[in-house]
C-alpha cells in the first residue's frame, strides 16, 4: 500500500541553496519516504496516491501535511472495496475528514478509471463531524470491460477534489 499527501509537495532536485541544516534533513526524509512509496503494490492490494493539484492529477509527492484538522484542504480516502453486483459494482468507501462542520465538509467522491475518466460520482448531503472516519456505499457503478483498477478521490465542499486517494484492482 502506498500513501502520500497532496499538500505542500516537495519535488526531488529542487532545493533552495540556503536551506538550514534541520530543514535539509527533513527534506531528505520526506524525499526518501516519497520514493519508498513509489514501489508497486502486490496484486489485489490497495494503493494510496495523492492528487497533486486538487483537480485529480495523479502524483506521488511527500509533505509534512496540515498542522491542524482545519488546515486539511481535502478529505482523505482511507479504504475502498469493490463488490461485484448484477448491475456493476458497489463501491464501499471510507473517508476521513476531521475538519467537518456544517459549513465545510467532505461532500462526495468520484471513481476514476486509469486514464482519468470519471466512472461514477457520489454526493454526500451533510457533514459527518461526529462520525470520523465514516464509510458509505455507492451502488451500481459500471466499470467497462478491460479496466483493471480504479481510483477513488474525495471531494471537499469548498476546495473540490483532491487529497489522498486509493486505487484498487477490479475483481
Topology of helices and strands:
Elements: H1 21-36, E1 47-51, E2 58-59, E3 76-85, E4 88-96, E5 106-112, E6 118-123, E7 134-141, E8 149-156, E9 160-161, E10 163-169
Antiparallel strand pairs: 1-2, 1-10, 3-4, 4-7, 5-6, 5-8, 8-9, 8-10
Structure overview:
This protein has 171 residues and is mainly β. 9% of the residues lie in helices and 37% in strands. It has one helix at 21-36; strands at 47-51, 58-59, 76-85, 88-96, 106-112, 118-123, 134-141, 149-156, 160-161, 163-169. The strands form two sheets. Strands 1, 2, 5, 6, 8, 9 and 10 form a seven-stranded antiparallel beta sheet that branches. It has a three-stranded antiparallel beta sheet with strand order 3-4-7, with no helix packed on it. The chain starts with 20 loop residues before the first helix and ends with a strand.
Q: Key features?
A:
mainly beta; 3-stranded antiparallel beta sheet; 1 helix; 9% helix; 37% strand; elongated; disordered N terminus
Total DSSP E strands: 10
The share of residues in extended strands comes to 35-45%
Largest sheet: 7 strands, antiparallel
Which structural class do the helices and strands define?
Answer: mainly beta
Shape estimate: elongated
How would you concisely characterize the structure shown here?
Helices cover 9% and strands 37% of the residues. It is mainly β.
Amino acid at each position: 500500500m502506498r500513501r502520500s499527501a497532496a499538500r505542500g509537495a516537495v519535488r526531488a532536485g529542487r532545493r533552495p541553496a540556503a536551506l538550514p541544516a534541520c530543514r535539509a534533513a527533513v527534506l531528505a526524509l520526506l524525499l526518501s519516504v516519497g520514493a519508498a512509496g513509489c514501489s508497486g503494490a502486490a496484486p489485489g492490494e490497495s494503493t494510496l496516491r495523492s492528487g497533486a493539484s486538487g483537480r485529480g492529477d495523479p502524483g506521488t509527492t511527500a509533505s509534512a501535511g496540515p498542522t491542524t484538522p482545519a488546515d486539511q484542504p481535502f478529505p482523505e480516502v482511507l479504504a475502498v472495496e469493490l463488490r461485484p453486483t448484477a448491475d456493476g459494482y458497489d463501491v464501499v468507501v471510507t473517508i476521513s475528514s476531521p475538519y467537518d462542520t456544517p459549513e465545510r465538509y467532505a461532500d462526495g467522491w468520484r471513481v476514476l478509471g486509469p486514464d482519468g475518466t470519471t466512472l461514477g460520482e457520489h454526493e454526500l448531503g451533510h457533514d459527518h463531524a461526529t462520525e470520523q472516519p465514516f464509510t458509505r456505499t455507492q451502488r451500481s457503478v459500471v466499470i467497462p470491460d478491460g479496466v483493471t483498477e480504479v481510483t477513488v478521490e474525495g471531494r471537499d465542499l469548498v476546495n473540490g477534489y483532491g487529497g489522498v486517494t486509493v486505487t484498487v484492482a477490479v475483481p
